[in-house]
Write a structure and sequence with these properties.
The chain is mainly alpha-helical. It contains five helices and no strands. The longest helix has 18 residues, at 3-20.
Length: 74
């Protein structure tokens, strides 16, 4: 899997988890101290996600970092 494919897969899981958590992109952006378009870019796979951001998102969404990265439970 190429870097772009992996980013897109992570982005899709980020979007799915956010929607399951009932949060808007704006709410997530505020939580992370980002602008809403940055969250949109992450979910589209056009922006990388830092380790700190991943940890915060996983905790917020109630999923594991492993699931966000690989789609595997953990």
């Amino acid at each position: 899997m190429g870097t772009n494919d992996k980013r897109e897969a992570i982005g899709a899981r980020l979007k799915s988890a956010r929607e399951q958590a009932g949060l808007t992109q704006g709410q997530v952006a505020k939580l992370l101290g980002l602008h809403r378009p940055s969250v949109s870019e992450m979910e589209a796979g056009r922006r990388g996600v830092s380790a700190d951001e991943l940890a915060t998102l996983a905790e917020t969404y109630g999923v594991s970092v492993n699931w966000l990265l690989d789609g595997e439970a953990g």
